[in-house]
Write a structure and sequence with these properties.
The protein is of the alpha+beta class. It has one domain: Nucleoside Triphosphate Pyrophosphohydrolase (Alpha-Beta Complex). Helices cover about 25% and strands about 45% of the residues. It is built from three helices and seven strands. A hairpin with a 2-residue loop joins strand 5 and strand 6. It is globular and about 55 Å long.
Length: about 150
């Protein structure tokens, strides 16, 4: 039996949301590799987890007007094989309320990005782990005193 080394991998990202026309919307991105998810990426030297999440969000979306809600983090965990190598991946997400700004996607990594209502986000997200973390974030948002009502999925 062959011993397969599993690489531990971590990424950091934001679950971006905004209020438009008294409706809550979330930003999802479509990666060049063919899946829908939230903006995230790998840490660079000298960055803490939140700095990584913010840099990746800004690079992938061009958006700079946002406020991170640092009082809660959400964790996505999954395993995958890529290029014959096994990975054990954890993604740490923060919620971020996005203000006005022009969405400019990073063509090298992304094919598209869309602002969607919560029910449409669940239809769009590709992987079960992403849907699970989104439901957790949505449930947490529901407990906060937001200025707007929205449906909890």
């Amino acid at each position: 039996m062959q011993n397969v080394k599993i690489i531990q991998d971590s990424s950091y990202g934001l679950i971006p949301f905004r209020f438009r026309d008294e409706k809550l919307e979330f930003l999802v991105i479509y990666h060049q590799k063919g899946h829908w998810a939230f903006p995230k990426g790998h840490q660079e030297a000298g960055e803490d987890n939140l700095q990584t999440a913010e840099r990746e969000f800004e690079e992938e979306t061009g958006l700079k007007n946002y406020q991170v809600l640092e009082d809660e983090k959400f964790f996505e965990h999954y395993n995958f094989i890529y290029g014959g190598q096994a990975y054990d991946k954890t993604v740490e997400y923060y919620l971020a309320e996005v203000g006005e700004g022009e969405l400019e996607i990073q063509d090298e990594e992304l094919q598209a990005a869309e602002w969607l209502a919560a029910d449409k986000v669940l239809e769009k997200l590709t992987f079960p782990a992403s849907k699970k973390v989104f439901k957790q974030a949505l449930a947490w948002l529901k407990t906060k005193s937001l200025s707007i009502e929205f449906e909890l999925i």
